[in-house]
Known about the structure:
Blueprint: H1 3-6, H2 9-12, H3 15-18, H4 21-28, H5 48-64, H6 70-94, H7 99-126, H8 134-139, H9 148-153
Helix pairs in contact: 5-6, 6-7
Amino acid sequence: MNDEARMSNDERMTKSENRSAHTEDSFWDDGAESIVCEEPEMKPVYDLEERTARFGEAVIDFARAIQQDAVTNRLISQLVGAATSVGANYVEADDAVSKKEFLKSIGTCRKEARETKHFLRMIVRAGPELKPKAPYALAGSKGTAPNLLQDLEE
């Protein structure tokens, strides 16, 4: 005798067939007005061009707050160069004419993002009082790009 023949009727039913009529009716007749939405109210923002631009702007704002001296001058120029290069390279990748060119430019974005993190760390070492402000530069202005570096590194 096969296994299916030994099963009771309830055991052979799939989950959807096993539902009670009450459960199904309560779904349709809950008294609430049904609304069909074809598009979500808030679309997730994936605009990396805008996010990389805001990231560069946030780093520039952060760099302006750094006290300049013999040590920080070089770090500031390296930091600003790397941070703004992320967006420039993304724009270049977005306009790529081949997959190979796109991957090369995106790879450069990732390298510049990692370099930005490195220079932020060095600046915090040169001026420990800047540590509370550094994460905001990484996050972008007003938190618009909290995972920008992580997105580019994945």
